[in-house]
Design a protein that fits this description.
Two copies of one chain form a homodimer. Chain A is an alpha+beta fold. Chain A has helices at residues 3-21, 27-33, 40-52, 69-79, 87-98, 104-119, 173-187, 195-205, 208-219, 247-256, 260-267, 318-335, and strands spanning 56-57, 66-67, 122-128, 136-145, 148-155, 160-166, 227-233, 275-278, 291-299, 305-313. Helix content of chain A is 44%, strand content 19%. The interface between A and B is large, with 42 and 42 residues. The structure holds a DNA duplex (30 and 30 nucleotides).
DNA sequence: GATTAGCACTCAACACTTTCGAGTGCTAAC
DNA sequence: GTTAGCACTCGAAAGTGTTGAGTGCTAATC
């Protein structure tokens, strides 16, 4: 029996137990539940070593020991065994995402609630549209009121964006249609981010009336927000954990979840289709220094990128969290065969 | 000094004090803080009467007394004095709603966060569109992909609704335009709820190809949800109140706020531009039987109806809540001079 | 007759002590 | 290297008094 290996196993047992119970783990517990061939005294010696190595902390002399951040890091990096979901759970996920939904908001909400239900962790779903990816496919002006039109932009990926525009003069529907057709053909393939500038250019080449119209249109295409929506689900789950039975802590946490900026920073900064685990202070938000965040991003086929984040105490069930997010990724990618963010059964 | 009047004043003092402190109120407190000309013994007698009348409860023999639901009801119905907001607060509200926003979701979120910030109560904002009110003003088909078009409906109030439609055959943009124009003129003024039926009717009079197209369009106009969005803000405020320092209670409450149905029922059922106060069990949601809900509805000019609900403990600052909601109503109605849900500075 | 002072009684909250048990570290024996 | 044994530590839980805010009742006072 390799000694290094044994230390490793004991550390793993401690982390597993602590994740399960949230109670400091004593040598006796390990000896009875995990390493029955070793006496508590032996475990004690090992634990003493592990503490010296920085993997364990002791809250006080006669409590058990608690894993340190370093331990969780090691655990996540090396000790995690894949933990497949049950068939029922996968079916549940599939079913939940299957229902016909049109709005991204709705999908996100559904997803957040399903995932938080499955994991018991608070779940945040952020959807953003990387602007550079969006190119114009079709443009249409629709009359709404006398001097008011709706500018509809269809992108190559099928996303639709609508902007109300107030014109300075009245324009006949037929004219609007002609203008739409000309602009459509001239601007096809133009990145949405450059649409304003391109419209200005075209306007410069046009005569008085038309230039004015195009100028007004250009003016509406300035600030398109990148992050479109953030939905949070399963907040009440936070209060299940004994670490937040202190109301003040819970309140802090909840109020972070109400701060859009902090959520964005929590969910940003990892690549596409990649799962990232940020333990404790790693997540960068001061108030969440003893929370961990597991995030995953998926590309939704229509140019949108969705990031799902699970937020829980540092003693999170990382294996479970990662499995669920992986499966969600597979399910979503399988479903999104469509162009406008609509799900297909 | 009228005796009835005095009882009244004492009850009011008790409620006021309890709302402020959340602590059972004793006779001595009232005698010192509110009715200095009366001794505690006198107050005691009055309180004893009030208890017999059902306005006060005593948690146990030697605690003070606590207002009953009946007392709160009386308080709200008869004792409430108008409590105008400060100039700063009104300015804050105005400023917060003033910023240019396009999406109803955004307005709601902003509003929820502002109102919950001002009142320290959790705030839910529901937006719905009474279907019967919506009538078609303009219809436009926009090509998106080969066999895919976007059906855009503009209502008389200026709301825009878009539905992606998959066609069975490819249709040239010019044809789409012509069809749009004809349908627009034929269907103008048609309530959105009847749109599907009307399209079917027209289809029946048409030839093969066209009938198919119209039939497909009609098929998409079936289930338009009435409640479009619910946004909740200031959840963390709940944990400020000592009544929710019991984590289990707080969790229950939070999880009600995550149940869309319950939120809908909480926010539904009061008329337009009217403020409703539902105390404790009156709000009809079992889990919220010791919460009160103050709601107000406003018509947004574009046919949408927004309902704002403040959720807090039964010892809510009703006066304050009502003032804030009244002011919000005024501000919103002032701002919504526009047709498509966009706010104007 | 309404008001009040006075008194006995109640009960939660707080501080304090004791007990208990789960834990540790160390040492000596296996 | 492993383990049994022992002394020690410390938080949690349970028990104990004390305090103070509260009540209800009665008798005296205005």
């Amino acid at each position: 029996m390799d000694m290094i290996d044994r230390k490793y196993r004991i550390l793993q047992a401690i982390i597993d137990d602590y994740i399960l119970t949230a109670l400091p783990v004593g040598s006796r517990t390990i000896s009875r539940k995990y390493e029955q061939r070793l006496s508590s005294a032996t475990i004690r010696n090992e634990m003493s070593d592990l503490e010296e190595l920085g993997y364990l902390d002791s809250p006080h002399t006669s409590a058990g020991r608690v894993p340190s951040y370093k331990a969780y890091r090691l655990y996540v990096d090396q000790m995690l065994q894949p933990l497949p979901l049950s068939v029922e759970e996968m079916a549940m996920l599939q079913k939940c995402l299957n229902s016909r939904m049109r709005q991204v908001e709705q999908i996100s909400a559904q997803l957040a609630s399903a995932v938080s239900g499955m994991t018991h962790y608070t779940t945040a779903v952020m959807t953003r549209t990387p602007r550079e990816d969006l190119r114009l496919s079709h443009l249409q002006l629709v009359p709404v009121a006398d001097r008011r039109v709706l500018l509809i932009l269809v992108t190559t990926t099928g996303t639709v964006r609508q902007t109300p525009v107030d014109l300075e003069m009245q324009v006949a529907p037929d004219v609007l249609y002609t203008v739409s057709r000309i602009l459509s053909s001239q601007l096809e393939g133009c990145p949405l981010s450059q649409l304003g500038t391109r419209l200005q250019e075209i306007a410069r080449r046009e005569s008085d009336e038309m230039a004015k119209l195009l100028g007004t249109l250009a003016g509406t295409q300035e600030d398109v927000p990148e992050v479109s929506s953030i939905v949070v689900g399963g907040r009440s789950n936070l209060l299940r954990f004994p670490e937040y039975s202190d109301v003040e802590k819970a309140r802090n946490l909840l109020s972070v979840l109400e701060t859009r900026d902090k959520l964005v920073s929590l969910l940003s900064g990892n690549g596409e289709m990649e799962i990232s685990v940020r333990i404790g202070p790693e997540n960068g938000v001061e108030e969440l220094k003893d929370c961990s965040v597991v995030t995953a991003s998926y590309r939704l086929g229509d140019g949108k990128v969705q990031t799902i984040g699970l937020i829980g105490p540092t003693r999170m069930q990382y294996g479970r969290a990662i499995s669920v997010l992986t499966q969600v990724g597979r399910t979503i990618c399988g479903l999104f065969s469509d162009q406008d963010g609509e799900l297909r059964p």
